[in-house]
Design brief:
Largest sheet: 7 strands, mixed
Structural class: alpha/beta
InterPro entries: AAA+_ATPase (IPR003593), P-loop_NTPase (IPR027417), T2SS/T4SS_dom (IPR001482), T2SS_E_N_sf (IPR037257)
Number of helices: 22
CATH class of the largest domain: Alpha Beta
Protein name: Bacterial type II secretion system protein E domain-containing protein
Keywords: ATP-binding, Nucleotide-binding
Family: Belongs to the GSP E family.
Strand order of the largest sheet: 12-11-13-14-10-15-18
Organism: Pseudoalteromonas holothuriae
CATH superfamily of the largest domain: P-loop containing nucleotide triphosphate hydrolases
Radius of gyration: 29 Å
Distance between the termini: 53 Å
Helix content: 25-40%
Number of strands: 18
Strand content: 15-25%
Length: about 550
Protein backbone atom coordinates (compact mmCIF):
# COMPACT_ATOMS: atom_id res chain seq x y z
CA UNK A 1 0.00 0.00 0.00
CA UNK A 2 1.38 3.44 -0.95
CA UNK A 3 2.17 6.08 1.67
CA UNK A 4 -0.85 8.16 0.56
CA UNK A 5 -3.22 5.20 0.86
CA UNK A 6 -1.80 4.31 4.27
CA UNK A 7 -2.40 7.90 5.43
CA UNK A 8 -5.97 7.83 4.14
CA UNK A 9 -6.77 4.69 6.14
CA UNK A 10 -4.77 5.40 9.30
CA UNK A 11 -5.05 9.17 9.82
CA UNK A 12 -8.14 10.13 7.80
CA UNK A 13 -10.33 7.10 8.67
CA UNK A 14 -11.11 6.00 5.12
CA UNK A 15 -12.34 2.38 5.14
CA UNK A 16 -10.68 -0.29 3.03
CA UNK A 17 -13.96 -0.68 1.09
CA UNK A 18 -14.06 3.06 0.24
CA UNK A 19 -10.38 3.06 -0.74
CA UNK A 20 -10.84 -0.01 -2.95
CA UNK A 21 -13.76 1.64 -4.76
CA UNK A 22 -11.75 4.84 -5.29
CA UNK A 23 -8.72 2.92 -6.63
CA UNK A 24 -10.94 0.88 -8.94
CA UNK A 25 -12.50 4.10 -10.29
CA UNK A 26 -9.01 5.66 -10.68
CA UNK A 27 -7.79 2.65 -12.66
CA UNK A 28 -10.74 2.90 -15.05
CA UNK A 29 -11.10 6.65 -15.50
CA UNK A 30 -7.94 8.26 -14.04
CA UNK A 31 -7.90 11.18 -11.61
CA UNK A 32 -6.48 11.78 -8.14
CA UNK A 33 -7.52 9.29 -5.47
CA UNK A 34 -8.15 11.96 -2.80
CA UNK A 35 -10.46 13.91 -5.15
CA UNK A 36 -12.33 10.73 -6.05
CA UNK A 37 -12.89 10.10 -2.34
CA UNK A 38 -14.19 13.68 -1.95
CA UNK A 39 -16.63 13.13 -4.84
CA UNK A 40 -17.73 9.85 -3.20
CA UNK A 41 -18.48 11.73 0.05
CA UNK A 42 -15.94 9.58 1.95
CA UNK A 43 -13.39 12.37 2.51
CA UNK A 44 -14.51 15.88 3.54
CA UNK A 45 -13.27 18.55 1.13
CA UNK A 46 -11.52 20.47 3.90
CA UNK A 47 -9.38 17.44 4.72
CA UNK A 48 -7.59 17.39 1.34
CA UNK A 49 -5.18 20.17 2.36
CA UNK A 50 -4.14 18.50 5.69
CA UNK A 51 -3.76 15.21 3.76
CA UNK A 52 -1.43 16.76 1.17
CA UNK A 53 0.47 18.58 3.89
CA UNK A 54 1.20 15.33 5.72
CA UNK A 55 1.84 13.32 2.54
CA UNK A 56 4.20 15.85 0.92
CA UNK A 57 5.67 17.24 4.18
CA UNK A 58 4.67 20.77 3.11
CA UNK A 59 3.48 23.25 5.78
CA UNK A 60 0.01 24.78 5.60
CA UNK A 61 -0.05 28.56 5.12
CA UNK A 62 -0.92 30.68 8.15
CA UNK A 63 -2.54 33.63 6.39
CA UNK A 64 -2.31 35.86 9.47
CA UNK A 65 1.50 35.77 9.17
CA UNK A 66 1.23 37.52 5.78
CA UNK A 67 -1.51 40.09 6.47
CA UNK A 68 0.96 42.91 7.18
CA UNK A 69 3.95 41.55 5.23
CA UNK A 70 4.94 43.22 1.90
CA UNK A 71 4.08 41.00 -1.06
CA UNK A 72 5.98 40.39 -4.30
CA UNK A 73 5.33 43.11 -6.91
CA UNK A 74 3.85 41.79 -10.15
CA UNK A 75 1.85 43.01 -13.13
CA UNK A 76 -1.85 42.34 -13.67
CA UNK A 77 -0.99 39.84 -16.43
CA UNK A 78 1.29 37.95 -14.05
CA UNK A 79 -1.40 38.00 -11.36
CA UNK A 80 -3.93 36.56 -13.84
CA UNK A 81 -1.50 33.75 -14.71
CA UNK A 82 -0.94 32.97 -11.02
CA UNK A 83 -4.71 32.90 -10.39
CA UNK A 84 -5.11 30.30 -13.13
CA UNK A 85 -2.37 28.21 -11.50
CA UNK A 86 -4.04 28.65 -8.06
CA UNK A 87 -0.81 29.96 -6.53
CA UNK A 88 0.70 33.20 -5.26
CA UNK A 89 4.41 34.14 -4.94
CA UNK A 90 4.77 35.26 -1.33
CA UNK A 91 8.46 36.17 -1.47
CA UNK A 92 11.32 35.92 -3.93
CA UNK A 93 15.03 36.02 -3.21
CA UNK A 94 18.08 35.48 -5.38
CA UNK A 95 18.10 31.70 -4.95
CA UNK A 96 14.62 30.92 -3.51
CA UNK A 97 11.01 31.56 -4.40
CA UNK A 98 8.34 31.04 -1.72
CA UNK A 99 4.97 30.09 -3.21
CA UNK A 100 1.55 29.66 -1.64
CA UNK A 101 -0.39 27.14 -3.74
CA UNK A 102 -3.52 25.04 -3.57
CA UNK A 103 -2.03 22.00 -5.32
CA UNK A 104 1.77 21.57 -5.53
CA UNK A 105 1.27 18.48 -7.73
CA UNK A 106 -0.47 20.49 -10.47
CA UNK A 107 1.45 19.77 -13.73
CA UNK A 108 0.95 23.29 -15.16
CA UNK A 109 2.40 24.84 -11.98
CA UNK A 110 5.48 22.63 -12.03
CA UNK A 111 6.01 23.26 -15.77
CA UNK A 112 5.99 27.02 -15.13
CA UNK A 113 8.37 26.69 -12.17
CA UNK A 114 10.78 24.54 -14.19
CA UNK A 115 10.75 26.83 -17.24
CA UNK A 116 10.92 30.23 -15.56
CA UNK A 117 12.69 29.50 -12.29
CA UNK A 118 14.88 26.46 -13.01
CA UNK A 119 17.83 27.89 -11.10
CA UNK A 120 15.81 28.80 -7.99
CA UNK A 121 14.90 26.61 -5.07
CA UNK A 122 11.11 26.49 -4.53
CA UNK A 123 9.59 26.66 -1.05
CA UNK A 124 5.90 25.72 -0.87
CA UNK A 125 3.09 26.53 1.55
CA UNK A 126 -0.33 24.94 1.08
CA UNK A 127 -3.13 27.50 0.83
CA UNK A 128 -6.86 27.08 0.33
CA UNK A 129 -9.01 29.11 -2.04
CA UNK A 130 -10.09 31.81 0.39
CA UNK A 131 -6.48 32.38 1.56
CA UNK A 132 -5.39 32.84 -2.06
CA UNK A 133 -8.35 35.16 -2.59
CA UNK A 134 -7.14 37.27 0.34
CA UNK A 135 -3.66 37.54 -1.16
CA UNK A 136 -4.99 38.53 -4.60
CA UNK A 137 -7.32 41.07 -2.96
CA UNK A 138 -4.27 42.77 -1.48
CA UNK A 139 -2.58 42.81 -4.89
CA UNK A 140 -5.69 44.37 -6.46
CA UNK A 141 -5.55 47.08 -3.79
CA UNK A 142 -8.94 46.76 -2.14
CA UNK A 143 -10.35 45.51 1.10
CA UNK A 144 -14.01 44.75 1.62
CA UNK A 145 -15.64 48.19 1.45
CA UNK A 146 -19.16 46.87 1.95
CA UNK A 147 -18.99 46.36 5.71
CA UNK A 148 -20.62 49.56 6.91
CA UNK A 149 -21.98 51.38 3.87
CA UNK A 150 -25.58 51.35 2.65
CA UNK A 151 -25.77 49.18 -0.43
CA UNK A 152 -26.56 50.54 -3.87
CA UNK A 153 -27.97 48.24 -6.55
CA UNK A 154 -24.53 47.64 -8.09
CA UNK A 155 -22.97 46.87 -4.70
CA UNK A 156 -25.73 44.41 -3.86
CA UNK A 157 -25.15 42.63 -7.15
CA UNK A 158 -21.42 42.56 -6.45
CA UNK A 159 -22.12 41.01 -3.04
CA UNK A 160 -24.25 38.29 -4.63
CA UNK A 161 -21.43 37.52 -7.06
CA UNK A 162 -18.87 37.31 -4.23
CA UNK A 163 -21.19 35.03 -2.24
CA UNK A 164 -21.52 32.57 -5.11
CA UNK A 165 -17.79 32.38 -5.92
CA UNK A 166 -16.03 29.07 -5.28
CA UNK A 167 -13.78 30.33 -2.42
CA UNK A 168 -16.80 31.57 -0.42
CA UNK A 169 -18.92 28.46 -1.10
CA UNK A 170 -16.05 26.09 -0.29
CA UNK A 171 -15.06 28.02 2.83
CA UNK A 172 -18.58 27.88 4.29
CA UNK A 173 -18.98 24.19 3.42
CA UNK A 174 -15.59 23.50 4.98
CA UNK A 175 -16.46 25.33 8.23
CA UNK A 176 -19.80 23.54 8.54
CA UNK A 177 -18.26 20.12 7.77
CA UNK A 178 -15.56 20.69 10.36
CA UNK A 179 -18.15 21.78 12.96
CA UNK A 180 -20.26 18.68 12.36
CA UNK A 181 -17.18 16.45 12.51
CA UNK A 182 -16.29 17.91 15.92
CA UNK A 183 -19.91 17.56 17.15
CA UNK A 184 -20.31 21.31 17.62
CA UNK A 185 -23.77 22.49 18.63
CA UNK A 186 -23.20 26.06 17.39
CA UNK A 187 -20.87 28.04 15.16
CA UNK A 188 -20.17 31.71 15.94
CA UNK A 189 -18.85 34.12 13.28
CA UNK A 190 -17.96 37.57 14.58
CA UNK A 191 -15.67 40.52 13.73
CA UNK A 192 -12.82 40.66 16.23
CA UNK A 193 -9.39 42.31 16.30
CA UNK A 194 -9.28 43.00 12.54
CA UNK A 195 -10.33 39.46 11.58
CA UNK A 196 -13.55 37.53 11.23
CA UNK A 197 -13.32 35.04 14.10
CA UNK A 198 -14.86 31.55 13.91
CA UNK A 199 -15.69 29.70 17.12
CA UNK A 200 -17.40 26.35 17.72
CA UNK A 201 -19.41 25.52 20.83
CA UNK A 202 -18.45 21.94 21.68
CA UNK A 203 -19.98 20.30 24.76
CA UNK A 204 -21.15 23.73 25.94
CA UNK A 205 -17.75 25.47 25.70
CA UNK A 206 -16.62 27.85 22.93
CA UNK A 207 -13.35 27.09 21.10
CA UNK A 208 -11.72 29.45 18.58
CA UNK A 209 -10.92 27.50 15.42
CA UNK A 210 -10.17 30.08 12.72
CA UNK A 211 -9.35 33.72 12.08
CA UNK A 212 -10.59 34.64 8.62
CA UNK A 213 -9.35 37.67 6.70
CA UNK A 214 -11.71 40.62 6.97
CA UNK A 215 -12.32 40.57 3.23
CA UNK A 216 -14.20 37.28 3.68
CA UNK A 217 -16.67 38.79 6.17
CA UNK A 218 -19.23 40.20 3.75
CA UNK A 219 -19.11 37.35 1.19
CA UNK A 220 -19.59 34.81 4.00
CA UNK A 221 -22.41 36.76 5.66
CA UNK A 222 -24.11 37.27 2.29
CA UNK A 223 -23.80 33.57 1.44
CA UNK A 224 -25.45 32.65 4.75
CA UNK A 225 -28.19 35.24 4.33
CA UNK A 226 -29.03 33.98 0.84
CA UNK A 227 -29.15 30.34 2.01
CA UNK A 228 -31.27 31.14 5.07
CA UNK A 229 -33.72 33.45 3.29
CA UNK A 230 -32.65 36.74 4.91
CA UNK A 231 -32.46 40.19 3.31
CA UNK A 232 -28.81 40.72 2.26
CA UNK A 233 -29.27 44.51 2.06
CA UNK A 234 -30.49 44.76 5.69
CA UNK A 235 -27.57 45.20 8.07
CA UNK A 236 -29.10 47.45 10.73
CA UNK A 237 -31.64 45.04 12.23
CA UNK A 238 -31.34 41.50 13.67
CA UNK A 239 -32.57 38.74 11.35
CA UNK A 240 -33.33 35.04 11.72
CA UNK A 241 -33.38 32.29 9.12
CA UNK A 242 -33.13 28.56 8.57
CA UNK A 243 -31.03 26.36 6.27
CA UNK A 244 -31.58 22.70 5.42
CA UNK A 245 -28.42 21.03 4.17
CA UNK A 246 -26.95 17.64 3.44
CA UNK A 247 -23.25 17.77 4.20
CA UNK A 248 -20.85 14.84 4.69
CA UNK A 249 -23.76 12.37 4.42
CA UNK A 250 -25.62 14.13 7.26
CA UNK A 251 -29.03 15.78 7.12
CA UNK A 252 -28.80 18.95 9.18
CA UNK A 253 -31.11 21.87 9.95
CA UNK A 254 -29.29 25.10 10.77
CA UNK A 255 -30.94 27.98 12.65
CA UNK A 256 -29.16 31.19 11.65
CA UNK A 257 -29.22 34.42 13.65
CA UNK A 258 -27.66 37.69 12.41
CA UNK A 259 -27.00 40.55 14.84
CA UNK A 260 -25.53 43.97 13.86
CA UNK A 261 -22.45 44.80 15.96
CA UNK A 262 -19.97 47.66 15.93
CA UNK A 263 -17.68 46.29 13.19
CA UNK A 264 -20.15 44.39 11.03
CA UNK A 265 -22.47 41.54 11.88
CA UNK A 266 -22.25 38.61 14.28
CA UNK A 267 -23.71 35.35 12.93
CA UNK A 268 -24.62 32.39 15.12
CA UNK A 269 -25.58 29.07 13.55
CA UNK A 270 -27.20 26.33 15.64
CA UNK A 271 -26.90 22.81 14.22
CA UNK A 272 -29.89 20.52 14.62
CA UNK A 273 -28.70 17.16 13.34
CA UNK A 274 -31.55 14.89 12.31
CA UNK A 275 -31.51 11.34 13.73
CA UNK A 276 -28.42 12.11 15.83
CA UNK A 277 -29.93 12.43 19.33
CA UNK A 278 -30.78 9.35 21.39
CA UNK A 279 -33.73 10.03 23.68
CA UNK A 280 -33.02 7.25 26.16
CA UNK A 281 -33.10 7.70 29.95
CA UNK A 282 -30.20 5.28 30.34
CA UNK A 283 -27.81 7.39 28.21
CA UNK A 284 -28.39 10.95 29.47
CA UNK A 285 -26.25 10.28 32.54
CA UNK A 286 -28.73 10.30 35.43
CA UNK A 287 -27.53 8.76 38.67
CA UNK A 288 -29.18 5.39 39.34
CA UNK A 289 -31.26 6.56 42.32
CA UNK A 290 -32.51 9.68 40.46
CA UNK A 291 -33.32 7.67 37.33
CA UNK A 292 -35.33 5.19 39.40
CA UNK A 293 -37.33 8.00 41.03
CA UNK A 294 -38.02 9.70 37.69
CA UNK A 295 -39.14 6.44 36.04
CA UNK A 296 -41.72 6.09 38.81
CA UNK A 297 -42.87 9.72 38.47
CA UNK A 298 -43.44 9.64 34.71
CA UNK A 299 -45.59 6.51 35.03
CA UNK A 300 -48.21 8.43 37.03
CA UNK A 301 -51.40 9.12 35.11
CA UNK A 302 -51.72 12.77 36.17
CA UNK A 303 -49.60 15.54 37.63
CA UNK A 304 -46.84 17.98 36.70
CA UNK A 305 -43.15 17.10 36.42
CA UNK A 306 -40.96 20.20 36.17
CA UNK A 307 -37.38 20.63 34.98
CA UNK A 308 -35.44 23.70 36.06
CA UNK A 309 -32.16 25.22 34.96
CA UNK A 310 -30.66 27.97 32.79
CA UNK A 311 -30.72 28.08 28.99
CA UNK A 312 -28.53 25.35 27.50
CA UNK A 313 -28.78 22.98 30.46
CA UNK A 314 -30.44 20.22 28.42
CA UNK A 315 -33.97 20.59 29.80
CA UNK A 316 -35.72 20.11 26.44
CA UNK A 317 -33.63 17.03 25.59
CA UNK A 318 -34.52 15.48 28.96
CA UNK A 319 -38.21 16.24 28.41
CA UNK A 320 -38.02 14.58 24.97
CA UNK A 321 -36.44 11.58 26.70
CA UNK A 322 -39.41 11.37 29.09
CA UNK A 323 -41.83 11.54 26.15
CA UNK A 324 -39.91 8.90 24.23
CA UNK A 325 -40.10 6.54 27.22
CA UNK A 326 -43.91 6.95 27.29
CA UNK A 327 -44.54 7.09 23.55
CA UNK A 328 -46.68 4.19 22.35
CA UNK A 329 -49.89 3.76 20.30
CA UNK A 330 -52.06 3.75 23.44
CA UNK A 331 -51.40 7.37 24.41
CA UNK A 332 -51.81 10.72 22.71
CA UNK A 333 -48.91 13.13 23.28
CA UNK A 334 -48.99 16.80 22.30
CA UNK A 335 -46.13 19.26 22.75
CA UNK A 336 -46.15 23.06 22.61
CA UNK A 337 -42.69 24.42 21.82
CA UNK A 338 -40.86 27.58 20.81
CA UNK A 339 -39.28 26.47 18.54
CA UNK A 340 -39.83 22.83 17.58
CA UNK A 341 -36.21 21.69 17.27
CA UNK A 342 -36.46 17.92 16.76
CA UNK A 343 -39.29 15.86 15.30
CA UNK A 344 -40.46 12.95 17.46
CA UNK A 345 -42.22 10.11 15.67
CA UNK A 346 -45.82 9.63 16.81
CA UNK A 347 -45.92 12.90 18.78
CA UNK A 348 -48.06 15.93 17.81
CA UNK A 349 -45.67 18.88 18.05
CA UNK A 350 -47.04 22.43 17.92
CA UNK A 351 -45.03 25.58 17.20
CA UNK A 352 -45.82 28.71 19.25
CA UNK A 353 -46.39 31.80 17.06
CA UNK A 354 -46.53 34.82 19.34
CA UNK A 355 -46.79 37.31 16.44
CA UNK A 356 -50.34 36.09 15.70
CA UNK A 357 -51.33 35.75 19.36
CA UNK A 358 -50.77 32.00 19.49
CA UNK A 359 -48.64 31.98 22.66
CA UNK A 360 -48.17 29.25 25.28
CA UNK A 361 -51.41 30.09 27.10
CA UNK A 362 -53.54 30.16 23.91
CA UNK A 363 -51.86 27.03 22.61
CA UNK A 364 -52.39 25.17 25.85
CA UNK A 365 -56.11 25.99 25.87
CA UNK A 366 -56.38 24.51 22.37
CA UNK A 367 -54.30 21.45 23.25
CA UNK A 368 -56.52 20.50 26.20
CA UNK A 369 -59.49 20.32 23.81
CA UNK A 370 -57.58 17.75 21.70
CA UNK A 371 -58.02 15.06 24.40
CA UNK A 372 -54.30 14.36 25.05
CA UNK A 373 -52.99 11.96 27.69
CA UNK A 374 -49.60 13.66 27.99
CA UNK A 375 -48.74 17.34 27.42
CA UNK A 376 -45.27 18.85 27.12
CA UNK A 377 -44.90 22.63 27.46
CA UNK A 378 -41.61 24.14 26.35
CA UNK A 379 -41.65 26.68 29.18
CA UNK A 380 -43.94 28.19 31.83
CA UNK A 381 -43.49 31.94 31.44
CA UNK A 382 -46.63 33.54 32.89
CA UNK A 383 -49.47 33.05 35.37
CA UNK A 384 -52.08 32.04 32.80
CA UNK A 385 -49.90 29.29 31.30
CA UNK A 386 -48.94 28.01 34.77
CA UNK A 387 -52.54 27.85 35.97
CA UNK A 388 -53.82 26.05 32.86
CA UNK A 389 -50.94 23.56 33.09
CA UNK A 390 -51.58 22.80 36.76
CA UNK A 391 -55.35 22.60 36.29
CA UNK A 392 -54.82 20.22 33.34
CA UNK A 393 -52.89 17.96 35.69
CA UNK A 394 -55.83 17.96 38.13
CA UNK A 395 -58.18 16.91 35.33
CA UNK A 396 -56.20 13.78 34.48
CA UNK A 397 -53.32 14.89 32.26
CA UNK A 398 -49.61 14.20 32.77
CA UNK A 399 -47.79 17.49 32.12
CA UNK A 400 -44.07 18.08 31.57
CA UNK A 401 -42.61 21.58 31.50
CA UNK A 402 -39.67 23.81 32.46
CA UNK A 403 -39.05 26.93 34.54
CA UNK A 404 -35.88 29.02 34.88
CA UNK A 405 -34.62 28.64 38.46
CA UNK A 406 -31.25 27.75 39.95
CA UNK A 407 -32.38 24.78 42.03
CA UNK A 408 -35.39 22.49 42.45
CA UNK A 409 -37.00 24.07 45.53
CA UNK A 410 -36.90 27.56 43.96
CA UNK A 411 -39.44 26.39 41.35
CA UNK A 412 -42.13 26.72 44.05
CA UNK A 413 -41.25 30.33 44.79
CA UNK A 414 -40.97 31.11 41.06
CA UNK A 415 -44.50 29.82 40.40
CA UNK A 416 -45.84 31.64 43.48
CA UNK A 417 -44.24 34.86 42.18
CA UNK A 418 -46.14 34.35 38.90
CA UNK A 419 -49.36 34.38 40.93
CA UNK A 420 -50.20 30.66 41.14
CA UNK A 421 -52.16 29.65 44.25
CA UNK A 422 -50.33 27.51 46.81
CA UNK A 423 -53.08 24.87 46.98
CA UNK A 424 -52.79 24.36 43.21
CA UNK A 425 -49.05 23.67 43.51
CA UNK A 426 -49.54 21.23 46.37
CA UNK A 427 -52.25 19.38 44.46
CA UNK A 428 -50.59 19.14 41.05
CA UNK A 429 -46.79 18.92 41.37
CA UNK A 430 -45.30 15.41 41.31
CA UNK A 431 -41.57 16.23 41.27
CA UNK A 432 -39.05 18.89 40.30
CA UNK A 433 -35.64 18.16 38.78
CA UNK A 434 -32.92 20.81 38.59
CA UNK A 435 -30.39 20.05 35.86
CA UNK A 436 -27.01 21.11 34.50
CA UNK A 437 -24.82 19.54 31.83
CA UNK A 438 -21.26 18.55 32.76
CA UNK A 439 -18.66 17.41 30.24
CA UNK A 440 -17.62 13.77 30.47
CA UNK A 441 -13.97 12.76 30.64
CA UNK A 442 -12.83 11.38 27.28
CA UNK A 443 -12.76 7.59 27.55
CA UNK A 444 -9.76 7.35 25.20
CA UNK A 445 -7.36 9.48 27.26
CA UNK A 446 -8.74 9.12 30.79
CA UNK A 447 -6.02 8.70 33.45
CA UNK A 448 -5.98 8.82 37.29
CA UNK A 449 -5.83 12.37 38.69
CA UNK A 450 -2.31 13.30 39.83
CA UNK A 451 -3.66 15.69 42.47
CA UNK A 452 -6.23 13.22 43.88
CA UNK A 453 -4.96 13.59 47.46
CA UNK A 454 -5.20 17.39 47.28
CA UNK A 455 -8.74 17.26 45.82
CA UNK A 456 -9.76 14.69 48.44
CA UNK A 457 -8.81 17.07 51.24
CA UNK A 458 -9.90 20.33 49.60
CA UNK A 459 -13.45 19.17 48.87
CA UNK A 460 -13.81 17.12 52.09
CA UNK A 461 -14.54 13.96 50.14
CA UNK A 462 -14.13 11.74 53.21
CA UNK A 463 -17.20 13.33 54.82
CA UNK A 464 -19.00 13.22 51.45
CA UNK A 465 -18.37 9.48 51.09
CA UNK A 466 -19.61 8.79 54.63
CA UNK A 467 -22.68 10.97 54.05
CA UNK A 468 -23.75 9.17 50.85
CA UNK A 469 -22.33 5.67 51.55
CA UNK A 470 -19.67 5.83 48.82
CA UNK A 471 -17.05 3.09 49.19
CA UNK A 472 -14.64 3.68 46.29
CA UNK A 473 -13.08 6.89 44.96
CA UNK A 474 -11.78 7.06 41.38
CA UNK A 475 -10.80 10.66 40.54
CA UNK A 476 -9.64 10.97 36.92
CA UNK A 477 -9.03 13.53 34.19
CA UNK A 478 -8.47 13.54 30.41
CA UNK A 479 -4.94 13.91 29.07
CA UNK A 480 -6.25 15.16 25.69
CA UNK A 481 -6.16 13.24 22.42
CA UNK A 482 -7.40 13.42 18.81
CA UNK A 483 -10.77 11.93 19.82
CA UNK A 484 -11.58 14.88 22.12
CA UNK A 485 -9.75 17.61 20.14
CA UNK A 486 -7.16 17.61 22.97
CA UNK A 487 -9.64 19.02 25.51
CA UNK A 488 -9.78 15.93 27.74
CA UNK A 489 -13.59 15.91 27.52
CA UNK A 490 -15.99 14.28 25.08
CA UNK A 491 -19.78 14.32 25.42
CA UNK A 492 -21.93 15.57 28.29
CA UNK A 493 -24.13 14.11 31.00
CA UNK A 494 -26.83 15.40 33.31
CA UNK A 495 -26.02 16.60 36.82
CA UNK A 496 -29.30 16.76 38.74
CA UNK A 497 -31.03 17.65 41.98
CA UNK A 498 -34.26 15.72 42.57
CA UNK A 499 -37.10 17.04 44.76
CA UNK A 500 -40.10 14.76 45.16
CA UNK A 501 -43.27 16.65 46.05
CA UNK A 502 -44.28 14.24 48.83
CA UNK A 503 -46.57 14.83 51.80
CA UNK A 504 -43.82 16.54 53.83
CA UNK A 505 -43.05 19.05 51.05
CA UNK A 506 -46.75 19.75 50.51
CA UNK A 507 -47.26 20.40 54.23
CA UNK A 508 -44.45 22.98 54.46
CA UNK A 509 -45.61 26.63 54.31
CA UNK A 510 -44.42 28.20 51.08
CA UNK A 511 -42.83 31.20 52.77
CA UNK A 512 -39.27 32.53 53.10
CA UNK A 513 -38.22 29.44 55.07
CA UNK A 514 -39.49 26.94 52.48
CA UNK A 515 -36.28 26.55 50.45
CA UNK A 516 -33.95 25.72 53.41
CA UNK A 517 -36.60 23.40 54.91
CA UNK A 518 -37.08 21.61 51.57
CA UNK A 519 -33.31 21.18 51.23
CA UNK A 520 -33.10 19.80 54.78
CA UNK A 521 -35.89 17.31 53.96
CA UNK A 522 -34.03 16.21 50.83
CA UNK A 523 -30.84 15.73 52.86
CA UNK A 524 -32.70 13.57 55.38
CA UNK A 525 -33.64 11.28 52.48
CA UNK A 526 -29.95 11.23 51.32
CA UNK A 527 -30.79 13.09 48.12
CA UNK A 528 -27.99 15.18 46.65
CA UNK A 529 -27.81 18.83 45.64
CA UNK A 530 -26.53 19.76 42.16
CA UNK A 531 -22.93 20.12 43.37
CA UNK A 532 -23.14 16.90 45.38
CA UNK A 533 -24.49 14.96 42.40
CA UNK A 534 -21.62 16.34 40.35
CA UNK A 535 -19.09 15.29 43.00
CA UNK A 536 -20.76 11.87 43.11
CA UNK A 537 -20.09 11.49 39.36
CA UNK A 538 -16.54 12.89 39.68
CA UNK A 539 -15.75 10.30 42.37
CA UNK A 540 -16.86 7.61 39.90
CA UNK A 541 -14.36 8.93 37.33
CA UNK A 542 -17.04 10.19 34.92
CA UNK A 543 -16.16 13.90 35.06
CA UNK A 544 -13.74 16.19 36.90
CA UNK A 545 -14.35 18.24 40.03
CA UNK A 546 -13.23 21.36 38.10
CA UNK A 547 -15.99 20.74 35.55
CA UNK A 548 -18.57 20.21 38.29
CA UNK A 549 -17.65 23.52 39.92
CA UNK A 550 -17.81 25.25 36.53
CA UNK A 551 -21.39 24.20 35.81
CA UNK A 552 -22.92 23.85 39.29
CA UNK A 553 -20.60 25.48 41.83
Amino acid sequence: MSKLNQLLVKSFHITQVELSKALEYQQKYGGRVEQILVNMGALPDDQVQPLLSEYLSIPQLNISDWIDEPLVTMSDDEALKFEKLACYPLASAENTIHIACKDPLLPALNEWLFEGNSEKKVSYSLANEYELKQLFSRHNGYESDLVTTNLTGDEEERLREMASEAPTVNLLNSLISKALRQNASDMHLEPYDGFYRVRYRIDGVLHEVEKLPRTMQMPLITRLKILSGMDIAEKRRPQDGKIELRIASQEVDIRVSALPVNEGESIVMRFLKKDSVRYDLSVIGLSEDVEQQIRQDIKTTAGVVLLTGPTGSGKTTTLYTFLNALNNPDVKIITLEDPVEYQLDGVNQVQVQSDIGFDFAAGLRSIVRQDPDIIMLGEIRDKETAQIALQSALTGHLVFSTVHTNDAASAYTRLLDLGVEEFLLNAALVSIVAQRLARKICSHCSVPAENAAELFERFELQQFCEKFDVEQINLRYGNGCEHCAHTGYKGRMAVTEYLGCDAKIKSLPKDANFIPLAKAHNLSLKRRTLVEDGLYKAIQGLTTIEEVMRVAG
